[in-house]
Amino acid sequence: MKAILINKENDTYSSTLTDVDEASLPEGDVTVKVDYSTLNYKDGLAITGKSPVVRKFPMVPGVDLAGTIETSTNPDFKVGDKVVLNGWGVGEVHWGGLAQKARLKGDWLVPLPDAFTTRQAMAIGTAGYTSMLCVMALESQGITPDKGDILVTGSVGGVGSFAISLLSKLGYNVIASTGRPDQADYLKELGAADIIDRAELSSPGRALGKERWAGAIDTVGSHTLANICASIKYGGAVAACGLAQGMDLPTTVMPFILRGVILHGVDSVNCPKEKRLEAWSRLARDLDTTHMDLITNEIPLSEAITKAGELLNGTVRGRTIVNVNK
Asked: What is the pLDDT of residue 202?
């Protein structure tokens, strides 16, 4: 089978597209014939080696996959079932989706909703699924459309793009933050009501600022997240799921003890299966599928290594689907 294989020997780190014997697949109670995978930020880090994402070598990257069960001893899945996988350390400590086959634990899989093809499932991928978890987090804190504007940072990326699409369809007034003003038309087509420059949020700010947003979905972290918290309205909430600017959080307790702001962390990797099933069910119901072609571009497996570098450079818009059989 064809696969991207990451190796590290001494100080030499390499990612290559190669032929891999299926007998090398790791242990698992299901084998999936992969149709599509994706490129996420974490995959870009893994393939380029710019961050120690991979903790076991050799490794097949790819934190997402969608395909068909080829063999199974798991009672929940039978041969021919369509499935989707996000996270669980796949592509980091267990071989992932950037290959034509994957052997996995069936407990990591989610049945593919009837509303989606395997290609559409990977158009959504971890980015769309994480966006849905963020929306659910805001809802759990009582942030309804009538409460006010919702800010989305990193809005041109995968999580941001799907967050705008989901929120706007659900009736929220969405403000998109981006450093790419040339993508304004794209963001408005997804449903953003207004756009602000990310520079407004990315520098050190005040402990408490003017109340601007009822809630926010943040993919950036660092000073951006600190400034968001300082500008959330009384009783508002922030769903934080990323660290594109940095993993630090240079803030104070002021927004939390004076305005009752909630900072809700969102994890997609080890999220319990019950919540995963709910998120995918909600995506099938709430996602405007007409936006998928706008958000998504498709590449063959042979281009994934090159595209990973572009992804980290911030020049990729939306989602990148990888057809592993091309």
From this structure: 95
Alpha-carbon distance 128 to 122, whole Å?
Answer: 9
pLDDT at 17: 97
Tokens matching residue 56: 């076991």
CA distances from 141 to 133, 237, 262 (A): 13, 7, 8
What is the sign, positive or negative, of the torsion defined by CA atoms of 228, 38, 183, 161?
negative
User: Does the CA dihedral 259-148-135-231 come out positive or negative?
Assistant: negative
Q: What is the DSSP letter of 97?
A: S
Check pLDDT > 90 for residue 41: no
Domains and CATH numbers, the chain: 2-112+292-323 (3.90.180.10), 126-265 (3.40.50.720)
Euclidean distance between CA atoms 241 and 214, whole angstroms: 18
- Other beta carbons less than 10 A from residue 19's beta carbon: 8
User: What pLDDT shows up at residue 114?
Assistant: 95
| Residue 300 tokens, joined | 């063959």
Relative to beta strand 232-240, strand 2-9 is unpaired
Distance CA 90, CA 63 (A): 5
Residue 120, CA distances (Å) to 112, 115, 125, 152 in order: 10, 9, 8, 23
pLDDT at 193 > cutoff 90: yes
DSSP for 229-252 reads: HHTEEEEEEEEE---SSBS-----
Distance CA 227, CA 231 (A): 6
Across the range 272-299, mean pLDDT stands at 93
d(C-alpha 166, C-alpha 287), whole Å: 6
Token representation of residue 213: 């947003």
Note the pLDDT of residue 128: 94
Residue 166 identity: L
